[in-house]
Amino acid sequence: MSKKKLVFSGVQPTGNLHLGNYLGALKNFVSLQKEMSCIYCVVDLHAITIFQKPDQLRNSVLETVASFLATGIDPNKSIIFNQSAVSGHAELAWILNCISRIGWLNRMTQFKDKAGSDKEKASVGLYIYPNLMAADILLYKATHVPVGADQKQHLELSRDIAQKFNNDFNCKDFFPLPEPLIPKNISRVMSLRDGTKKMSKSEESDYSRINLKDSADEISKKIKKAKSDSDQIPDNLKDLENKPEALNLINIYSEISKINLDKALNEMSGKEYSFLKKKLADLLINEITPVGKEINKLLSDKGNLEKILEKGKEKANIIAEENLKNIREKVGLI
Ligand code: TYM
Q1: CA 59 to ligand 1 center in whole angstroms
Q2: Which end of the chain is more exposed for a tag (fewer CB within 10 A), N or C?
Q3: Do 42 and 141 share a structural domain?
């Protein structure tokens, strides 16, 4: 088995990226560049499992690339490209559709959440979405996959698919079993309006999330309006057990201020949530608004973003084609 470590991850181009994407994924993407070869993909084929307006999709792909760059992903170190530009993703996804089991897909909680109550009307693409995700990772034989906790189940499925492929075709270790890299402290940033739901692009209220492109004023207002608690901040985690919105704010505070949760609670205990909110808003403004400004600046030169995608596609395609050649051979395709 190839011992080479390789990172792969993807982000859907479905509108503004937010604090959840930033703390759950992008920050990790950036730091991993120092240690390993990294491939970061704008997963446009995943995005179209739910209808996207074509012009908006094209813009969102470029905006996602701009967000990658603005947070510190370096196109000279990492490969940045969009999924549909490398046709191997779709080809391997088909092969893996034939490996993956219906029973496995039936267990995927994200499909249940996204399809809602009328599953008959969900696209077939949405149902087999996790197989395409496995194809993304296995196409490059990636060993490490940085994601937020919401993607853990999909990663486990990717491992099951890899293992079944290796068994079915009697090629032990052909696909490495990809390791999820999930942030330890804040693996799931929750909605500012409902602490039981993850912060998400698809949540209707913009007050539920901090977008990377929000102005200082918007960040201040959103944090001020965020649900918290009427009691004072406690000095221990146990007292926050049934207060998910309050816990979420403290979690974000501890992550952004780079102190652990106990220290954050120590610092804040006995204070009103308004005190925490003021400090948190200032920290977020400091960290997020420069990113938003950089995204807008990068978006003013779309040609440059397209060039980065083109170069990334060429590099990704070389690895993908080489691996696909071996995959086709294992399966018996001529
Ligand atoms: P997507 O586009 O929903 O999210 C991109 C990344 O952001 C993380 N994330 C969060 N982390 C913490 N708290 C949150 N509230 C939050 N919201 C989003 C996600 O975990 C993800 O890491 N299926 C994937 C994209 C994908 C992929 C892949 C990822 C396609 N192929 C292959 C890894 C490897 C998705 O929809 O992510």
Answers
A1: 19
A2: C
A3: yes
